[in-house]
Design brief:
Helices cover 44% and strands 14% of the residues. It is of the alpha/beta class and 264 residues long. Strands 3-2-1-4-5-6-7 form a 7-stranded parallel β-sheet, sandwiched between helices.
């Protein structure tokens, strides 16, 4: 299936590895030009080199996207589209787990800034241009915890739920929806990423069990009996960005191998 993405410009955050890289890879494979962003320059350039083998234009911007200066660097990168992106995939590493009793105001502000306000700033900068040109796709990578909150992930639960509510309203604006601009959220469950491994490492240290035992126990809680692959997550993202997905907006797409047990 041709997703209709050839020549379009996509911005992907957190794209040096994991789910962000999976999204960038799938978009580049479909012929989209990609601006990838992450803070680590070395890992980001390695990711860009791999993506360039797919034949699309790939620009790497090693900045902190949560800052105004970082976002300005993206808009002004040489060879880029300025703010005229056709696709924006927002993605920021989740805040650390813990007990809410130990978090101070600054912890909450940092979580909200990275996981709610930064995506909103990216949307604000690009979405009206998308509407004027008659095509646009916003995909926010959030978390399955938005639907099934986890007690130790209170910072993430709160910040990402705030973004979810904002997107639900904005996506239904006729100015956007009637001009072929969609906004959706992708909610990943357990994927084979550094983030998952670091979480399981905490369980290893807490219980004294091996990583293999911890991983096997986690897999058994998932009906698919496995962790997801970043590439299949990326392919889901690419479909949401496609011309075929133009009638899907304001949705929270849960990709967790069936782990969420609810009907709705």
């Amino acid at each position: 299936m041709d997703l209709g993405l050839k020549g379009k410009w996509a911005l992907v955050g957190g794209a040096s590895k994991g789910l962000g890289f999976g999204c960038a890879q799938s978009l580049a494979r479909e012929g989209a030009n990609v601006v990838i962003v992450a803070r680590g320059a070395e890992a980001l350039e390695a990711a860009a080199s791999e993506l360039r083998r797919l034949g699309s234009t790939v620009l790497a911007v090693a900045v902190d996207i949560t800052t105004a200066q970082g976002r300005d660097a993206i808009w002004s990168v040489a060879g880029g589209p300025g703010k005229n992106f056709d696709i924006v995939v927002t993605n920021a590493g989740g805040p650390p787990p813990g007990d809410f009793r130990h978090w101070e105001r600054d912890d909450w502000i940092k979580a909200v800034d990275a996981n709610m306000l930064t995506p909103i700033e990216l949307i604000k900068a690009t979405v009206d241009g998308m509407a004027e040109r008659g095509f646009g796709r916003i995909v926010n990578i959030t978390s399955s915890a938005v639907k099934a909150p986890i007690d130790i992930l209170g910072l993430s639960n709160g910040a990402r739920s705030g973004l979810t509510g904002f997107v639900a309203g904005l996506a239904r604006s006729p100015k956007l929806a009637a001009n072929h601009v969609t906004l959706n959220n992708l909610l990943p469950g357990a994927y084979d990423t550094d983030r998952l491994r670091s979480t399981m490492l905490g369980a290893v240290e807490k219980t004294g069990q091996s990583m293999e035992v911890i991983a096997d126990a986690r897999k058994k809680t998932i009906p698919a009996q496995r962790f997801g692959h970043p590439q299949e997550f990326g392919d889901t993202c690419a479909f949401l960005c496609s011309v075929q997905a133009g009638y899907i907006t304001g949705q929270n797409i849960l990709t967790d191998g069936g782990a969420y047990a609810g009907t709705y």
